[in-house]
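To fix ideas, we close by showing one paired sequence and structure record:
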Amino acid sequence: MCYGKPTLYGSLTRRGLSTEGVPDIAASEGFVVGEVTKKSIVISCPRENVSTKFLAPYTTFCGIHQKSVTCLDISSGGGLGVSTGTDGTMKIWQAANGEIRRLLEGHVYDVNCCRFFPSGLVVLSGGMDAQLKVWSAEDASCVVTFKGHKGGILDTAIVDRGRNVLSCSRDGTARLWDCGKSACLGVIADCGSPVNGIAVGTAADSLNLGTPEKPPSDREIGTEGKILLLAREDKKLQGVGLQSRQPVFLFIGSDAFNCCTFLSSTYILAGTQDGNIYQLDVRNTK
């Protein structure tokens, strides 16, 4: 139950069922059963001073994909979901009941990542075909296709409301795209190693993001004051000024970085292949 300590084993026994349908649960020696509902149970180990709440799913949507689900997202209003699977499909569905609303077809090979734009009416996807696509959630039409990566796209991010979007790839680059012109605005980073995940966020005022070597395009919208995180296959987590394209920090972890996200304008989280999760302060990552 605790990292670095011997595993503690125990068992749970159901002794009966209340009139409300809530099970009566007893734990073996060393463990204590706390609050129990139809969908959750709290188990604690007083000796180690730890407690965990286990949750059962409220519902399961079994008919959306036939194989492993690789990515999913929920619209800003919570009404729609979009997901991709190793069955080669990308689908939009009702979040309330799992009813399939749209099938998004156009990528060659598997689709690796998908996400809604803030409006909830548009979807961004990236595939093994090295293409980035923008879709209408209303009629499933592909309205924009971006080409430029030389390897499969592994993750995406959206800048503010979505005039600009970002992608990272097995080719080792992260790129900024202009949705209105269907054009690449620049390579934000060329890492020489696959970039498995990215995240974009507003940087703290005290963080020096660097100065652009040339004036940014007037098609760049919302890039000022933003930092881009790069989770790299070569065990490195990198921060880059989105508008400046200048490096902000470089942190070396224990294994390949798979994903990253912002906790705030100063704190970030990143996960590695060997199971570690790093919490870092972007002002001082040493």
Observations:
- The two ends are 29 Å apart (CA to CA).
- The chain has three domains: 12-55, 65-147, 154-286.
